[in-house]
Amino acid sequence: MQLALLWLVADYPGISQIDLGQRLQLDRATTMGIVNRLQARRFLRREKSASDARKQALFLESAGEAALGAARAAVQQHHQWLESRFTPAELKTLGELLSRIAHHAPGD
Question: By C-alpha distance, which of 49, 57, 9, 17 is closest to 33?
Answer without folding.
Answer: 17
